[in-house]
Amino acid sequence: MTAPTRRPGRRPGPTSSREDILAAARVLFGERGYDKASIRAIAREAGVDPALVHHFFGAKEELFAAAMEFPVDPGVFLPQVLSGPRSELGERLTRTFLRIWSDSRLRPQFIGILRSAATTEQGAALLREFITGTILARVAEALGTPRLNVTAAAAQMVGVVMLRYVLEVEPLASATEDELVALLAPTLQRYLGD
């Protein structure tokens, strides 16, 4: 007698499908990178139907954010940053970035992601793919700005974050948001163009 074949999709009874999908996503994103890890491949690895992946996580970027335990969805904050006068883009970007990082509920996850990226190749690959595929490419396309300029703006902000929130270097660590916006926004505006 042959064993019944399991059909993909929602498993009967209590299920670990969501966790299985996240585990499969972490493996495939780490091995293949963001662009080459498809929803279908992740579903296959987890032993579920691709529709279940969409049910739990929506789009691929949301799955990646969940797999990375990325505490904010770029699909929410990027439209806010990119809307409005182009001449105020540097200020909007700086304020948004600082507000996200200053949220004490989110900061531990962000710091964990940065530490993972600094200490493991898989963490670095996941964060690199997420930043380049989900954030930088979108911003460059939306603004019509060279990718190098957008990457330079991101590097500026990541450096500030490392010194302010991870290493807590003074006086950067205790500077007010307004002080940092006044200092950083013109530089980001120059990178991103008027």
What is this entry, summarized?
InterPro entries: Homeodomain-like_sf (IPR009057), HTH-type_TetR-like_transc_reg (IPR050109), HTH_TetR (IPR001647), Tet_transcr_reg_TetR-rel_C_sf (IPR036271), TetR_C_16 (IPR041678). This protein is mainly α and 194 residues long. The protein has helices at residues 17-36, 39-46, 50-57, 60-67, 74-82, 89-102, 107-119, 121-143, 147-166, 177-192.
What is the second-level CATH architecture of the largest domain?
Orthogonal Bundle
Tally of alpha and pi helices:
10
Radius of gyration: 19 Å
CATH class of the largest domain: Mainly Alpha
CATH fold topology of the largest domain: Tetracycline Repressor, domain 2
* Unreliable residue stretches: none
Helical fraction equals over 70%
Measured distance between first and last alpha carbons: 71 Å
- CATH superfamily of the largest domain, called what? Tetracycline Repressor, domain 2
Question: So what's the overall shape?
Answer: globular
Largest sheet: none
Report mean pLDDT, rounded to a whole number. Answer: 82
| Strand count | 0
Number of domains as seen in the coordinates: 2
Task: List its salient traits.
2 domains, Arc Repressor Mutant, subunit A, Tetracycline Repressor, domain 2, mainly alpha, 72% helix, 194 residues
Helix/strand layout:
Blueprint: H1 17-36, H2 39-46, H3 50-57, H4 60-67, H5 74-82, H6 89-102, H7 107-119, H8 121-143, H9 147-166, H10 177-192
Explain this structure.
Residues 38-57 bind DNA. This is TetR family transcriptional regulator. Keywords: DNA-binding. The chain has helices at 17-36, 39-46, 50-57, 60-67, 74-82, 89-102, 107-119, 121-143, 147-166, 177-192. The protein folds into two domains: 17-67, Homeodomain-like (Arc Repressor Mutant, subunit A, Orthogonal Bundle); 74-192, Tetracycline Repressor, domain 2 (Orthogonal Bundle). The chain is globular and about 50 Å long. The chain has 194 residues and is an all-alpha fold. It has ten helices and no strands.
